[in-house]
Amino acid sequence: MSGAPLFGKVVVFGVGLIGGSFALALKAAGQAGEIVGFGRTLGSLNQALQLGILDRVGFNVGQEVSNADLVLIATPVGKTAEIMARIAPCLGLQTVVTDGGSTKEDVVAAARMHFGERIGQFVPAHPIAGAENSGALAARADLYRDKQVVLTPLPENGPQRVARVRSAWECCGGVVRELTAAEHDRIFAAVSHLPHLLSFALVHELARRDNRDLLFGFAASGFRDFTRIAASHPEMWRDICLANRAALIDELDRYRAQLDQLRDALQRGDGTVLETTFDVARAARREWAERKRQE
To answer: Which pTM was predicted?
Structure first.
């Protein structure tokens, strides 16, 4: 692409799947002049450097953030507040901060605590493009292509800052939508956080059985499809579940009620209830799949 990039300097905290893919996508689009990375270990940062995700490894947070155009916090949500506390005193006047966290109300609360009067410089975001693999090796430039990215703008965010963050994710190939933080957390408790919890629970329960090897030996495509997300990063999903626990508990209670209805139907030998439930579920699943195919 010709002309100057939209973002001269981008600082990324966490250079794994989410942060690394963001960096690669901006580079591929020619919209980042320089990408500087921070992470938990020098080994992971050097790996990201070797993979071409980063241009430089950062060592001085204040120095790097003070003149950055864009900062992405792509660490597990449990670490977000710690990163915010580190960068808040150093933010340049033109620096815009966003994140890639799967929960938003807790992130917004942390931002209000640490950014204070500069809260308007933080525009929360959530790219809906995770995968079961993690780390810099999992990062890829096309991760966000045609995937939804949810922004949950704050009242203090000026239109220009929201537009800057929107443009960053659009440069990565994302399809940007907006929700409130509360709406976001309720929705994703149902369609993301609950499925992960259930998948982890099933594999954990089977793994504790004495005949686990026999069970896993006969597991086939149905088990594979249902449990794929149980291979996801445990620390990340621990933080997500705890951060969104109120909404997640509500969804878990709804699901338990559904399971109780199915158990009662099995106990009674009531095939009509089972078939009706399965039929409604099949129709809804097929409708969703067709809608996704057409997007």
So the answer is: 0.89
